[in-house]
């Protein structure tokens, strides 16, 4: 299955999500390939760190050239594509070949508006062809219960047509940044942390067949 982790806004956590998914799927004995189609190459940087540190399992990474080679991609059980608007041509090509698109949505009105525009872009790219499943969840949410912005963003996301809302969410936690900078998935650095528990809940929804 080809899964695109995408959005129109930078800073939504696409590379962090892609990297953690790649490690999680590899640990689940899935034949997985990650593609870095973002000119910022953040995913490439973290995979380089992981490789240099010798962490297992390794993350197999490819460039955006493979977006045009479906035969090669079909050799993998799971393909993850990290892409954004910095390379609009690659984003459109990723949408064309995607089985599904996962959209991390930070809790702000601007990100809800951006998600609406992204859904319109998806529709314009696929036209009358098969539309990939589109799923969205709250990423980098509030950790303080008194702050309601994440709940308000979730309510707005639920109301958007053309996207399936995922209830599991990831909070804005230092553990995600720290583990990422060290070339580790959040659940590798501290399996008992809140971030790891949040991650496992999200991954179980996205890849129920792996845990089932």
From TrEMBL:
Family annotation (InterPro entries): CobQ/CobB/MinD/ParA_Nub-bd_dom, DNA_Partitioning_ATPase, P-loop_NTPase
Family annotation (CDD domains): ParAB_family (cd02042)
Residues in CobQ/CobB/MinD/ParA nucleotide binding domain copies: 4-184
Name of this chain's protein: ParA family protein
Classification of source organism: Bacteria, Pseudomonadati, Pseudomonadota, Gammaproteobacteria, Chromatiales
